[in-house]
Design brief:
Shape: elongated
Oligomer: single chain
Number of strands: 11
Radius of gyration: 19 Å
Order of helices and strands: EEHEHHEHEHEEHEEHEE
Helix content: 25-40%
Bound molecules: benzoic acid
Number of helices: 7
Length: about 210
């Protein structure tokens, strides 16, 4: 069965481009992004891994560790990483799992047989420090993901975890956020000294607390 929000993220041991890892040990107390792509030496995947590498500082700033998965062998991964670095002007230093036996793909339901019987789809999971699933997205093989959107969701998740606020449609860093329904307006006024704008009793905005 597929993993759903709030479910525990399954742990695994795997061979990767930085050696054998235990997923939970690799994550430590960080947030995690685990993402799969169809195959090595494919064009869209090459740009995705390059883009992820170029965003290294953005992931680090948010205390996020990244791990990529595909069902190709480790020697192939090493060769492909050279190509990614060359063509995308980057340095891929996050690990790529060599999931030849599809163990990780199975645990995370990354093969969707009606799309492809053998290749993993573009699955992406954000995992919280509590090792539960916070976000799942699935893209088809032909569409590269928007990694700025992944960072934007992580920002929103971290704001909710740390400040009890939610983010409205199309929210971008620095814009007003929404007081979560669990916090009363009376408590919100005490909690958010920058002010609370009550549009409706259930729709209350406050400036982004961590700005
Ligand atoms: C790719 O991974 O680059 C890809 C896979 C299937 C269709 C188109 C592109």
């Amino acid at each position: 069965m597929s993993l759903r929000l709030g479910d525990p993220a399954p742990n695994f041991r795997a061979n990767t481009t930085i050696g054998e890892i235990d997923f939970y040990e690799y994550l430590g107390n960080s947030w995690g992004v685990l993402f799969s792509h169809p195959a090595d030496f494919t064009p869209v995947c090459t740009t995705e891994l390059g883009r992820t590498a170029l965003l290294k500082d953005e992931f680090a700033k948010r205390n996020v560790k990244v791990l990529a998965v595909s069902v190709d062998p480790i020697e192939k991964h090493h060769g492909w990483v050279k190509d990614i670095n060359e063509t995308q002007n980057c340095e891929v230093d996050f690990p790529l799992v060599a999931d030849e036996h599809r163990e990780v793909a199975g645990l995370y339901d990354m093969i969707h047989p009606n799309a492809s019987a053998t290749a993993t789809v573009r699955s992406l999971f954000v995992i919280g420090p509590d090792k539960t699933i916070k976000l799942t997205i699935t893209y088809p093989a032909s569409t590269g993901r928007n990694f700025f959107e992944v960072l934007r969701v992580i920002d929103s998740l971290q704001l909710t975890a740390n400040h009890s606020v939610a983010t409205p449609a199309n929210w971008q860093e620095g814009e007003d956020v929404i007081v979560v329904p669990a916090v009363s307006t009376e408590d919100a006024i005490k909690k958010f000294p920058k002010g609370v704008k009550v549009v409706k009793p259930y729709l209350r905005y406050t400036p982004q607390p961590n700005k």
